[in-house]
Write a structure and sequence with these properties.
The protein contains seven helices and six strands; from the N terminus they run βααβαβαααβαββ. The chain is α/β, with parallel strands linked by helices. It is globular.
Length: 187
């Protein structure tokens, strides 16, 4: 059973810098994103991970590689970002021009995923991470990692709204005795 799970959001992309919702559009990192991804490696250099999972999308794979974990990484489709469907490439203000009361965490996205669908994927990832024989690490995306963290803490998907994770940010999920806790965030 995993003692700690480290989550790493990919470094900055052009769209993340602009606040655009990016799910299946396969963007690479900006220069700032590559620099931030390279900085992750030294922060985790003293740690050993029995399981390294990574979203198959380029921005997560690049972050994983630049952080020094590509050789051990296993790609996991369930770590793809929340599917924004018709809202792909739009900012929240642009979406709210169409649907003023829209809230991702409650409504999901037309032609994309609902919160229940995302919860189902994340719960599969968490089950896999929990089975790791030692610490585990996951490289993925902002919203999916926020949902994963909320679910680790025993909360519903909507609680992820309160867990902003910066591009290139690191979170640490662990235990206090038998209780799942958040040990660090945006390191």
């Amino acid at each position: 059973m995993a003692r700690e799970i480290v989550v790493v959001r990919h470094g900055e992309t052009e769209w993340s810098r602009a606040g655009k919702h990016t799910s299946h559009t396969d963007l690479g990192l900006t220069e700032a994103g590559r620099t931030r991804a390279e900085a992750v490696g030294p922060l985790l250099a003293e740690r050993e991970f029995s399981l390294v999972l990574c979203s198959p999308l380029r921005r997560a794979r690049e972050t994983c590689e630049l952080a020094g974990f590509a050789d051990a990484a296993v790609l996991d489709d369930d770590l793809r970002e929340w599917d924004y469907g018709s809202y792909e490439g739009l900012t929240t203000p642009e979406i709210r021009l169409r649907s003023p009361a829209w809230l991702l965490w409650r409504d999901g996205c037309p032609d994309g995923e609902s919160p229940a669908q995302v919860r189902e994927r994340v719960d599969r990832v968490l089950a896999r991470l929990r089975r790791a024989d030692g610490d585990a690490i996951a490289f993925a995306h902002g919203h999916i990692l926020r949902v994963l963290t909320a679910r680790w803490l025993g909360m519903e998907v909507a609680a992820g709204a309160r867990l902003a994770l910066e591009a290139g940010g690191i979170g640490v999920l662990g235990f206090e005795r038998e209780t799942e806790v958040l040990r660090g965030w945006n390191r």
